[in-house]
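I'm stuck. Please check this protein.
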Amino acid sequence: METLMAAAASRCPVLSQASAASRETLMRHALLRHVERGTCIFSHGAAAESGYILMGGWIKITRTQPCGAISILTLHAPGETFGFADSIRRLPRSATAEAATDCTILSVSARSICQTMRSDSSFGNAILSHSFQQNDSLLQQLEALKIFSGIQRLACFLLRHAKPGNGRHIVRLPFHKHLVAHYLGLKPESLSRSLAKLKEYGVRTVPDGIEISNPGALEALIGETSDIRHREIA
């Protein structure tokens, strides 16, 4: 388990900026958890006592409106972090985090995060930069919802989550596509139609996921060829 925690610290965009001594301190106050799909990691309004690193699986961040409607703010993939901003500000949780699949998460105590920020300026700067990047990503997501068509939003999502291997790019979705549709602001039938239209851009459904044979064609469809993956929340 210690090896796994050390690996998480080295690959995390925030923890990797901490000194070796700081990382060791943070890991002493970290807890590795395996949670089942549907498990609530934290609830909107609850005390923020930890920041999280997603080791495996997918996490959805949501907010529930007074009428009962649920908005999916973002989906987190393995290697990403969530819940840090509320923790360092010591504010109640601004949203709810729920396991969209079975997950492995590493939680780091808010107290140790704040102490390390004060003692390690590089780590403190990394935390601030990470928070700004997440805010920028939210603005970019809002922009995409306002100006991109459904097929363009789907193309953004696929490009961001595509993993290269064996000469191809594959997006593996371990959950039902209606979750992606909800996140992208589409109806499930609209998502299916958009996915069908993307066939002419080199996208097809295969047994192990969604295959992209020509990422450049999707970038051209979106109309932007640089940093496409940052059009989505990271």
User: Anything to note?
Assistant: DSSP finds nine helices and twelve strands in the chain.
